[in-house]
Amino acid sequence: MVGKYKVITLCGSTKFKDDFLKEQKRLSLEGNIVISVGLFGHSGDSEVWEGMDENTLTKTKLMLDDMHKRKIDMADEIFVINKNGYIGESTKSEIEYAIKTNKKVNYLE
After folding, report:
1. pTM above 0.90, yes or no
2. How far apart are CA 47 and CA 69, in angstroms?
């Protein structure tokens, strides 16, 4: 299949790593370009934060949040991994941003 592919950015808590990977595969096999998170800070990439002072930690988290909004800018829509209905503050902010920028929002649940 060759053609125009929809671009979807995954959003949600990084504690749902397995769900991110499952949905990334599913959406890719359906013919979409999938943009995901850069790391799973709440489930498996904890070494990223080890040894960081509070100032660096704050700056890094702000950078990663901003980068994810740029990923939303590149997308046609977002897909929210809201396992068991969970939507944290960062994800809520991403949903609001997507709506404000006229992106379609779909949910796992």
Report:
1. no
2. 24
**For the chain, what is the radius of gyration of the CA atoms?**
14
- Structure tokens, 101: 């920028």
> What are residue 107's DSSP bridge partners?
80
> Which amino acid is it at 5?
Y
- Is pLDDT of 88 > 70? yes
Give me the chain's average pLDDT, please: 90
| Better-scored residue on pLDDT, 18 or 42 | 18
Q: Where are the beta strands (DSSP E) in 1-109?
A: 7-12, 33-35, 77-81, 104-107
Beta-carbon count within 10 A of 85 CB = 8
